[in-house]
Amino acid sequence: MKTLWNGRFDSDEEVDLRLWQVIKEAKDMKENSGYCFVGYDTDDGVKRNQGREGAEGGSNSIRKAMQSFPKIDDLEIYDYKNLSNKNLEDAQEEYSNKIADVINKKNFPIGLGGGHDIAYGSYLGVRKAYPDSKIGIINFDTHLDMRPYDEGVSSGTSFKQILDSDKNAKYSIVGFKKQGNTKRLIETAKKYDALILDEAEEEEVIIESLKKYCDSVDIVYITFCVDVFDAVYAPGVSAPTVLGLDPRKGQRIFQEILKTKKVVCVDFAEVNPTYDIDMRTAKLVGVLIYNMMLNFKK
Predict the structure, then answer these.
(1) What is the DSSP string of 115-151?
(2) Pairing of strands 24-25, 219-225
(3) Sign of torsion, CA 31 33 35 39?
(4) Residue 298 has pLDDT above 80, yes or no
(5) Into which CATH architecture does domain 14-295 fall?
(6) pTM over 0.85
């Protein structure tokens, strides 16, 4: 694990321990004990979607941002490491099997991307673990990612793929911005009865809408395309957003969804260290993850 996690060292005493000193490999996973990172270190889907390359380094960048955070008492944290397959379709299948394995062992998977095609992989893993459940997908994103895929899949097709193949799944988006979506994409989302929550909506309105949405499903899967956040806070993404979602508002909404206790998987996509500034984007994601683990212990 030292190749993925190796941070600041104070001592080996319990009071000084940091995440890098206590994180374990997924092969040592105990049932119902904690969280497990699953790396999705490919941006093949971003390239296919004509985005700027570099998100393949996102998984390790997020790990680096978190590695010196303090150990969390009474919580086991594991890492399933990165992919052996980088081709989009093969990567999604490999990754989905890891997600399903973590869930089947009654632990909580956290996907680290990588392109937003991670979303289809996470969905596949959740569906393998919960074959009969009604899945509510909540996408924190500027973009609907419901492009047609007649000529191939990409980082922009995941949610249309899911809804076309699974009538027991629902889709919602938080942080939507009109300038990032064509009329066709919006019409497609409405055709599938997607819940579209604009970035400019009041926080309380978004939270109440999502609570009702969560009530209508059995389980919830949350995915973050990190470009949902304003470019000041998240410059290192595949497609930066001007006047995007404020991270504090995003975190409050995120934690209100977690309080429903229906969330079974979370992932973070499009972190692109090539364009990051002082690891600002990776650190934002690291804090969101750490606060989730700290306040919602498995």
Answers:
(1) STTHHHHHHHHHHHH-TTSPEEEEEE-SS------TT
(2) unpaired
(3) negative
(4) no
(5) 3-Layer(aba) Sandwich (3.40)
(6) yes
